[in-house]
Design goal:
One of its GO terms (molecular function) is FMN binding. With 311 residues, the chain is α/β, with parallel strands linked by helices. It contains eleven helices and eleven strands.
Amino acid sequence: MLLNSPLKIKNISLSNRIVMPPMARELSEEGKVSDALIDYYYRRAEGTGLIIVEHEYVSHEGMASPKQLSMADDSVIDSYKKLTNAIHSQDSFAIAQINHAGLESISSNKINLNQITLDDINYVKESFVKSAIRSKKAGFDGVEIHAAHGYLLSQFYSPYTNKRIDKYGGSLENRMRLHNEIIKEVRNAVSDDYIIAIRFGAYDYLEGGSKLEEIPIAVKSFVNSGVDLIDISGGLCRYVNPHSKEAGYFKELSKIAKESCDVPIILTGGIKKARDGEDLLSKRYCDLIGIGRALLMDSEWSKKALKEDLK
């Protein structure tokens, strides 16, 4: 069974191909991990190869919701150590997802990507780098840069929202510039064996938005900049495909990404049955299967799935 086969990424070896993708639970306490959140992840870690913890804001200007987790200052590190220890105790691995909401921020100081200065952009980069360093200190096995779902990096990537006329706007290379600069600076700040992932909003499904033919160029550039893992999702359409609700509804995008680079690809979206995950793996749409809502509803989904006979 492919779903139960191991996969090595950098210095870790996942026991299986099941990934719990980031899903905001709004259970933080002043940005720190609460006991309720630790219990939530602990119960879902058993049987799950990899957990990508819900997004954490890199600065208060990039906060997406009132009870979102923070990675914006050192005071949160100890609470994350309790979380990573809990996940590791279940023989699972943990990646932190760091994010800046941009125009989607609830902060009164939210930034507009089309108006911010180069100094502001440098501050954003610095915030991502510092958050990545904190994730490592907190015991995470890697960090995922959130570049999907209409948040800041997704806004930069899409020509629908990015109207800048400087080196961060216009061409595809310019619209990816901030992503690649962040990846490179994070890589310089963490060790070579520390995992860097990107949640890539690969397509907007929107006229005037990003294009399918841009995906191979984008993923190759991210890998060249230092990414070890690509987590495929939607862009301005967020985490849904407006044209499909089938299991693995972003599989068209993940297939393009997988055929364009040599790092593992995660596919998430509407996958509720182990057999569907196995089918998507066998048809080489991806290397890892993200199980979101099903794991949210049933903390024992992974354990049950691995016991199924899918031959």
